[in-house]
């Protein structure tokens, strides 16, 4: 086997590789930022940091002054217009009124507010539910039927209002009276309602009437929630929040103004003849303009907020809803009383005794 070594070919290959590496290195070096670019970038970042620090200075000064005012170490505080202070008090009073109202009327959002929970009754209800589910499951033959039993709502479920629950009691009492009439040998031949007593008839009438009264109460609740509670809540969350933001802007502008004014006083050191630097004078002028503008916007918003039209309208709506409820209740009870007075008194049972 012969082996030949071509030195010239190897040399050319090395030169080609060297050129390629040199070219790649130059390209990479060319992509690196220059010293000027690095310096410029660093300076730009430092300027950005400097701006952020500069933006924090007014906030820190304002916070410091606010704390000093609260702790009483500073008494030289700019006085806001009396009109503004009067409006602030009226807004606070109106807000307090709305909060007290909504706190009281939120009971309409609780279905059982006129029927407090009863432990014994709750246990009886749970027992009935369990018995109903067990009975249904015992009759189920497939998985889907069992699932339907578990998910099915209760039969004759009454809302947790006094009127509905009273209606339920009256109805069950009537059914108990009627069930006694079905006992005996001729139970299947006699319709218990045909020989229904005046008492059982009265129980049915009152039960139906009470159920209607319960529905009327739920309708009243729904209207008060939508037309009164929700509107007051919206006013508190939107209108008062907007006014509060504007008032905070006034306070911020006032603190900025007093901070600059205090700095100028420190420069003058009690001598008002000392010339104030133009930058400080301009700064004070700008702060004063901001305070005036912020105050005007807040005054306008507060005047709009305290107009008596909206609260008066809400109270009128509330009263109308109550009036309609009591009117319907009165009509229903009047009709019930008329029906009860026309029921003939039972004499049959008394004669048999």
Automatic annotation (TrEMBL):
Record keywords, A-Z: Coiled coil
InterPro entries registered for this protein in UniProt: AH/BAR_dom_sf, BAR_dom-cont
SUPFAM superfamilies: BAR/IMD domain-like
Coiled coil: 243-304
A Pfam family this chain is assigned to: BAR_2
Annotated protein name in UniProt: Uncharacterized protein
Species per Swiss-Prot/TrEMBL record: Eeniella nana (Yeast)
